[in-house]
Amino acid sequence: MRLLRVNDAAALAAAYVRNRTYLSPWEPVRPEEYYTEAWQAADIANRLVAHEAGEGYPLGLFAGDTLVGRFNVAGIVRGPFQSAGLGYWVDSKYAGRGLASAAVQLIVEMARDELGLHRIEASTLLHNVGSQRVLLKAGFQQIGTAPRYLQIAGKWQDHNLYQVVLHE
């Protein structure tokens, strides 16, 4: 796992194309352009600007040269909040192997030890049991349910909310 680079755009676009059907129940409806190298290059570039400003950390999980997962620490807020949000997915061919769990656990350690964050939040659809297991293994606790929280797969859907507090 490493920080994404703009030249990872082709690998990221290929991963989204490979996983389009697999990810569609868990993500917003995407325009066709989203699945292109150009769109992904622009998105990575924007996320790297946020990274340079200390507001995000866009990560890719690789098996050799193949991108097999994406993890975003985003919306980093400093000051008294010291918090960020986490989003992620793993390629369908690599799901169920513990890769997401290991990556999220590493991100929790990085957020605490390197980024100095106090808290990370994440959300899952109510029926996304796999992602809930990943979060619980990494020390997240469910803190509530948000009705119609995000527009996923074309409709506003309820989400479970999770957080991990990194410093007591």
From TrEMBL:
Organism expressing this protein natively: Pseudarthrobacter psychrotolerans
KW Repeat (keyword) present: no
Protein family per UniProt: Belongs to the acetyltransferase family. RimJ subfamily.
PROSITE patterns cross-referenced by the UniProt entry: GNAT
Residues covered by the N-acetyltransferase domain: 1-162
UniProt entry tagged with the keyword Heme: no
Name this polypeptide is given: GNAT family N-acetyltransferase
A GO term, aspect molecular function: protein-N-terminal-alanine acetyltransferase activity
GO cellular component: cytoplasm
A Pfam family per the record: Acetyltransf_3
Signal peptide (UniProt feature, chain positions): none
UniProt keywords, alphabetically: Acyltransferase, Transferase
Lineage: Bacteria, Bacillati, Actinomycetota, Actinomycetes, Micrococcales
